[in-house]
Amino acid sequence: MSTSAGEPIRIVLADDHQLFRDSLKLLLEKNGCEVVGQTATAEEAEAVADALHPDIIAMDLEMPGIGGLAGARRIRKASPASKVIILSAYDDEEFVLEALTEAGAAGYILKSDSAADMLVGIRAVANGKHYLSPSIAPIILSHIKNPRARGARSGTLTPREREVLRLLGHGATNKDIAQKLNISPKTAQAHRENLKQKLGLRTTAEMVRYAIKHKIVRLD
After folding, report:
1. What angle do CA 58, 64, 66 make, to 5 degrees?
2. What is the pTM of this model?
3. Which CATH architecture has domain 10-143?
């Protein structure tokens, strides 16, 4: 598998599960790709992308730190030529549409896909196309037919509010959130209070339960 110039596709794998990275690396290298880096967080992936400018960053949706969606947005600035493929266990419309529209990902691949489908997706993105796992296409069609439904389900959260809520769901304090998102603790507190009002919640515990229920955080 190679780019149009005949060179191997250079890939960075960003996933906090070492076994998954190892198995994916083996699959890719058996099929002519070059895995030039591996990271366990989106922040590390951003640094590697800035240094190596790979063709593709295959990034887990949910990782410690800022997560894959925020990481994809950062990588667009750090290495514009690198394409991000989101790897996910979730086929929720909310995640798929946010990855493609707001985070600027070029692909969304389910971890449950076959090896053949994963390779097809990586080849497509490397050749400048967008790719979705076969089972996700109906989600996009559903959104086109009924675009208002997404806003009702997502609670009209902004990408930054989703990031804050995800961090809260993982037990982050205002100081932790401020450090992760490069904002002040005062701004982090303001985001927390705005979320409470927007979602009609009163306590941090209720916010955590909301984040889990709506799959904004993943329970391993």
Report:
1. 75
2. 0.69
3. 3-Layer(aba) Sandwich (3.40)
